[in-house]
Amino acid sequence: MDEGRVVNWLDLPSQLMDLISEKLMIHITEFIRFGAVCHSWHSIYTQNRNRLPRQLPGLLLFTEPQPPTQQQYQDQDQDRRQRRSHAFYDFTEKRVYKFPLQLPPHTDCHGSNQGWLIYEKESQLFLLNPFLSVDNEIHLPPLTTFILNEYESVEYYEFGNGQSFIHKAILCGNPASSSNYLVVATDAYSSMLAFYKSGDKEWTSIITDEFEYIEDFIYYKDQLYVLDGHRGLFACDISSDPKVSKVAPPIGQVYAYDLVESSGELLAVKKSNVGFEAYKLDQNLLDWVEIKSLSGGSLFIGANFSLSRLCSNYPGWEPNSVYMTIPRSTIVANRAEVVRVYKLEVGNIESLYLTESNPTVYSTAIWIEPTLRGCPN
């Protein structure tokens, strides 16, 4: 080998370049940097970005530059509110990025999936993908039919309630890559469900007496499952004439569980500050079975969005860990702490704190998956 020879990285064999790009796809930031090196590398990036695997989520943070004083809280300082912004925390790089979002003031996101956020404004839900520069917002039909199931009129809700009508919403499918997608939402009292299928003119309410308090719901194996804290797990057939059937009994404690799919299993994970407790649905017994391990996976549990990842696909991440966002009430007391990490193999709990140089967290962090699917050239 000629030690004096200078290697031109731009002239590497195409097979080697494909291998390098394949390895970098695990982390979206590294793949974007790869595509920015030169024209030929950008061509590889463009050809392969829609093959990007599902990414580890980051945290969408609602922040402000400095901690407000008690007097500012009392005065509801308008200037301080105007300085609030969004940021994105990347776990791999352990870094906070500025993340401008065109959201109405004081907007809470009701859900997230594959880069899309679900937010509410004036009795209507919207889908917004901040990772896309074009075709990144979808206006769903007004919530009129959903609202009228609970309120005397839309005006009564808008002017008498003054708060969000929706508590949580989930998106099934990716509108950036398919015209077929589904949105399911529950009301602020967690007593009713409605769904919207792409192309429909309005929302379809699921009318049933089965639900008393909806703890969580998930689209699992092409079926909508609803966990009612008092009455158990139900499967919902969301055809033109929705039907509800009971699948499993209640787990036990009410107001405590999130549903998430992990390695093909449906799990119910308890919200807890002191340890890990989870159950999987036994498809044969139609009952809940407690589990002590995640079989090498990790869970990311949030107020409005939860997901799982197999850590063997992501170097540097510890298996059998649960990352749980801190509720809003806790954040107010300790603004630097945003996530608690439950490490099952060693049996301890760690907290993720943003450093003092990073912005102050103002509200509950939201898991969001970076994506390039649907990005223009």
Can you describe what's shown?
It is built from eight helices and 26 strands. It is an alpha+beta fold. It has a domain at 13-53. The strands form six sheets. Strands 1, 2, 3, 25 and 26 form a five-stranded antiparallel sheet that branches. It has a five-stranded mixed sheet with strand order 21-20-22-23-24, with no helix packed on it. Strand 20 and strand 21 form a beta hairpin. Helix 2 (28-35) crosses helix 3.
Task: Identify the notable features of this structure and list them briefly.
26 strands; five-stranded antiparallel beta sheet
Strand content: 35-45%
What can be said about the biggest beta sheet?
A: 5 strands, antiparallel
Helix percentage: 10-25%
Multimerization state: single chain
The radius of gyration computed from the alpha-carbon positions, rounded to a whole number of angstroms, is 22 Å
Number of strands: 26
Structural class based on helices, strands and sheet pairing = alpha+beta
| Morphology | globular
Any low-confidence stretches, pLDDT <50, length ≥5? 77-81
**Rounded mean pLDDT score:** 79
Number of alpha- plus pi-helical segments: 8
Q: N-to-C terminal Cα separation, in Å? A: 39 Å
